[in-house]
Amino acid sequence: MNQYDIALKSLLQRQLQGGFLSRFTGHRITEWLGTELPEVRTRHVDLLGKTAEGQLVHIEFQSRNHPRMALRMAEYALAIYRRYKVIPTQTVIYVGERPLRMPPTLAGPDWLYTCRIVDIRDIPTEDLLSSPHLEDAILAVLTRLSDSRDTIRRILQRIATATPDQRTVAMAELMLLAGLRQLKMIMKKELEQMSILIDINRHTIFGPIHREGVKEGLEKGLEKGRQKGREEGARLFATDLLTQRFGKLPPAHAKRIQNMNQAELATLRTRIFEAKNLKDLFA
Fold this sequence. Notes:
Blueprint: H1 3-13, H2 20-25, E1 29-32, E2 36-37, E3 43-44, E4 47-51, E5 56-62, H3 69-84, E6 89-94, E7 105-108, E8 111-114, E9 116-119, H4 125-129, H5 134-139, H6 148-160, H7 164-180, H8 184-193, H9 197-200, H10 214-224, H11 226-246, H12 251-258, H13 262-271, H14 278-281
Parallel strand pairs: 5-6, 6-9
Antiparallel strand pairs: 1-4, 2-3, 4-5, 7-8
Helix pairs in contact: 1-7, 6-8, 7-11, 11-13
């Protein structure tokens, strides 16, 4: 699991009440299921949800064109059926930079499999920016942008209205996804000019930023606060994801996260979406 998968899964898993996910899949997911699919070898899907009617919704994120994506999805469909006895509705969400070129079909004599493969850039940017869900606004950075600076500025303005804890997670996710579109430098420049910089200047992702000489302070803060900021940001990010998935963390688990180093936090993040419960995660 790479860092983009973690951010994308976090954004979509928080949207059980609607937003982009419901519109994109055509289903209203009421709960998330385990993503480990037993077989001769263990498989892990990106997201697997269940609707109130019992329909399973399988979502995969792909940042590169994979010539055998349809085969992978067919194998996932059979593995899901093997475990849950339900054929899932499947969607591949392509978030890559290059044009989408993955064939959606797998055909043979008297046999045909087709999966839905969609390019997130085909979603109108304005639809996501105007959504009441902050997660949708963050996803807008992956669409086909006519004005990158204006889009990022509007996303940052939305993030500025969130609670401090929400801002921490949202900024981490936005930075990761902006990297897919080579927009990190534009983000930094927009932050220099925005009034919310005063609120974000303690943000752990960027390190300490001084109000005097914003540009110089930002660069120095990035350098000096990089190690400490990454670790603290990773702790907050992991804690938020765990709380959303398993509920309020017991004090013992929260303390363990606070005592983890960066390598341990990285391992924890890769396991969050695989573990069925906290006991498995911290075993």
